[in-house]
Amino acid sequence: MKIHEFQGKEIFRRYGIPVPDGEIATTPDEAQKIAEKLGGKLVVKAQIHAGGRGKGSLTKAAEIHGVKVVTEAKDARAHAQALLGNALHTHQTGPEGQVVRRVLIERATDIAKEYYVGLVLDRETARVTFIASTEGGMEIEKVAAEMPEKILRLGVDPATGVQAFHGRKLAYGLGFTGDTANKAAKLLAKLYQVFIDTDASLVEINPLVLTKSGDVIALDAKVNFDDNAMTRHPELLALRDVEEEDTRERAAKDAELSYVALDGNIGCLVNGAGLAMSTMDIIKYVGGEPANFLDVGGGATAAQVTTAFKIILQDPKVKAILVNIFGGIAKCDVIASGIITAAKEVGLKMPLIVRLEGTNVELGKKLLGESGLSITPANDMLDAAKKAVKAAGGGK
Ligand code: ADP
Ligand code: MG
Fold first, then answer.
1. Which of 60, 83, 107 is the last residue of a domain?
2. What is the pTM of this model?
């Protein structure tokens, strides 16, 4: 689960991680009031669940960016007005952008240097691991690709938890000295505590800055929580902002389907996560692009199959649908009736390629054949993928 920067900063504040003073506004009036109250040089920051806001701009006005320094309250108001209600486009949002519903007005910091620090779970070492770099402000993926030597990693033994030496090693590794090294080291230990206490999957400060007056401050905050741990954190669940979530992903979550939207044009309806992955692979292998990952689960019901179809059809990019079902727990005839009901209910018009295998497969095929729907049957996965790619117009 993702949260906004301002929510991440509230958590940081509770742990004593320094962040700039600031408040959230949902209207230009509020933005002006906050700006008058804070006074001085300020930053107006669009709050969306995507990064790259500083370089990102309004989909309709390329000169208006998601992060702007202002010196007058009236300019804070003007920028808030420009952003609120409009879609901000960044490299993380996709072409249609994401609508800005809140702006954070915070004190501008005099930056001496920007750093990157983050925490993730390294599955290879099975340790919560610090990632740090002197190349702050840049995307860490880009630093990793272009200057891997600029990235420090430090795993924390779960038996001991974070120790003073972790913070010191990283702080000195980043080039901090004396008092600022102490500040950075303490901040890093607190960041680790945030990660553990909230069952986070990612905690990231980009940029962490050294100010001209020698303070070490988090200027950005990205905190993602592990969805599987949310039952332990009702207080964090309250931070969920459903408006920021992909509407199709949300509908899928509510129907207990696993769905991830992708950029291609072949809608996939598959039972089982492994089969869904290999379906996407084989589509790519024959030159196509999947529009989504969709796992209806091993024991899919007809109702779930119908919801799955509706979710796929909401995506305007989809030109063909590939159904790939292995009837194990769910029998092929049950799935086939689900497909028929769903296709009729949603008035399916686009090409539908179906590959069925497993228990009661002959009965399932018979039902599909007699349904009166125009369904292209496929013999195996490769055949299905080829037919789907062809039906979708030869891939992306
Ligand atoms: P994003 O990562 O989405 O682009 P950031 O919060 O990292 O958004 O802001 C982008 C850049 O804007 C930062 O790298 C920093 O240079 C500048 N910035 C952000 N907040 C402040 C602030 N409070 N004071 C001064 N500069 C800031
Ligand atoms: Mg940032």
1. 107
2. 0.82
User: Do residues 96 and 117 both lie within one domain?
Assistant: no
**Residues catalogued as catalytic:** 116, 204
193-251: per-residue pLDDT in tens?
A: 999 999 999 999 999 999 999 999 999 999 999 988 999 999 999 999 988 888 888 88
Interval between CA 206 and ligand 1 midpoint (Å): 8
Q: In sequence order, what DSSP letters do the residues of 318-372 get, joined into one string? A: --EEEEEEEESSS-HHHHHHHHHHHHHHTT--S-EEEEEEETTHHHHHHHHHTT-
Amino acid at 51: G
Amino acid 395: pLDDT: 56
Angstrom CA distances, 210 to 16, 27, 142, 195, 281, stand at: 16, 32, 22, 22, 45
pLDDT digits (tens, 9 = 90+) for 64-91: 999 999 999 999 999 999 999 999 999 9
Strands 103-107 and 42-46: antiparallel
Q: Which atom of ligand 1 is nearest to the CA of 50?
A: 3
Q: pLDDT-based confidence at 176, cuts 50/70/90? A: very high
Pairwise CA distance, residues 127 & 122, whole Å: 5
Between the CA of 52 and the centroid of ligand 2 the distance, in Å, is 6
End-to-end CA distance of the chain: 30
Ligand 1 site residues (CB inside 6 A) read 20, 43, 51-54, 67, 106, 108-109, 111, 114, 137, 206-207, 219-220
Determine the residue of 5, 53, 67, 211 to mutate for testing ligand 1's pocket, defined as the one with the most ligand atoms within 8 A of the Cβ atom.
67
Query: Per-residue pLDDT for 60 more than 70?
Result: yes
Ligand 2 centre from 205 Cα, in Å? 7
Q: Which of 203, 236, 269 is the last residue of a domain?
A: 236
Q: How many CB atoms lie within 10 A of CB 242?
A: 8
Looking at the structure, do residues 231 and 123 belong to the same domain, yes or no?
Answer: yes
Host domain of residue 348: 247-391
Residue 396 has pLDDT above 70, yes or no: no
Among 64, 72, 61, 18, smallest CA distance to 45 is for 64
